[in-house]
Specification:
This protein is an alpha/beta fold and about 120 residues long. The chain contains three helices and four strands. Helices cover about 35% and strands about 15% of the residues. Strand 3, helix 3 and strand 4 form a beta-alpha-beta unit.
Length: about 120
């Protein structure tokens, strides 16, 4: 299976459904990975397309959606292997949120950077 990541276009879209349509219509991919830069504001449109059966997701890239306090998309904005217990706890909480979104969107895989 081939899949295409929203890392390519999530930064220039304000609506999740338009972001996904660009990948499906212009590039011809039916399977999509939601990248670590997917903002929470994009999720309603993403959920709408999933609920209507217009898209399927191969994976979500941790952390997805992007934590609201993170201004620049980075897959390692919080380290699961951090020395700081506070940072590790935040990474774990965000990872569980990514796993919950993956389940909600039928994505069988979550991509993690472990440190």
């Amino acid at each position: 299976m081939s899949s295409f990541s929203t890392c390519w276009n999530s930064g220039r879209h304000t609506a999740g459904d338009e972001m996904l349509r660009e990948i499906k219509s212009e590039l011809g991919f039916d399977s999509i990975e939601l990248g670590h830069g997917t903002r929470l504001s994009l999720m309603p449109g993403i959920q709408k397309m999933f609920d209507s059966g217009q898209v399927r997701f191969s994976s979500l890239h941790n952390f997805c959606p992007l934590p609201v306090e993170v201004m620049v998309a980075s897959p390692d904005c919080y380290q699961l292997s951090a020395v700081s217990a506070e940072e590790r706890d935040r990474a774990v909480r965000q990872t569980f949120q990514t796993i919950d979104f993956a389940e909600r969107l039928g994505a069988p895989f979550v991509v993690l950077y472990l440190g």
